[in-house]
Design brief:
The chain has about 140 residues and is of the alpha+beta class. The protein is about 35% helix and about 35% strand. The model is unreliable at about 135-140 (pLDDT under 50).
């Protein structure tokens, strides 16, 4: 089972009851297709970057769920034909931790290379704050 994030954009004039029904409809689809919903909530009302059907604002709904690729495909199909949904996006998020871990490993390897001795055999200097006995930082006592 993979973890997915479903972002749904609906019209800004929908009341809370209508928004709740949209969320309930798709959480039911997920559970009926052997998926599990982690979170489902109204995220925010935002101004759009460009107009969609003469609408400048939209309400974003976010649903995080676990399921199969077939479940994500079925949700995509249903969302495309739903007249209440202006736009939608399904992203797989279970691989994000792996990507972040690889990025951290590359960054630490890069830092280790900087500390290795150069061609003259001297280690690369590390930045440090120098202070004298009087407590004045940055001076060498001269």
């Amino acid at each position: 089972m993979r973890t997915y994030e479903l972002l749904i954009l609906v019209r800004p004039d929908y009341d809370d009851e209508k928004i709740t029904s949209v969320i309930a409809r798709y959480t039911d689809v997920i559970t009926n297709l052997q998926g599990s919903v982690t979170t489902a909530e109204k995220w925010a009302k935002r101004r759009l970057a460009y107009e969609i059907d003469r609408v400048r604002e939209g309400i974003y709904l976010i649903i995080v769920f676990k399921g199969t690729a077939q479940l994500a495909d079925e949700l995509d199909r249903l969302l495309k034909i739903d007249q209440e949904v202006m736009r939608h996006m399904i992203c797989r998020i279970d691989h994000i931790e792996e990507v972040e871990q690889k990025f951290r490993q590359k960054r630490t390897r890069g830092q280790e290379r900087r500390r290795e001795p150069d061609a003259k055999g001297q280690a690369a200097p590390e930045s440090a704050v120098v202070s004298d006995d009087t407590g004045n930082e940055g001076s060498n006592g001269n």
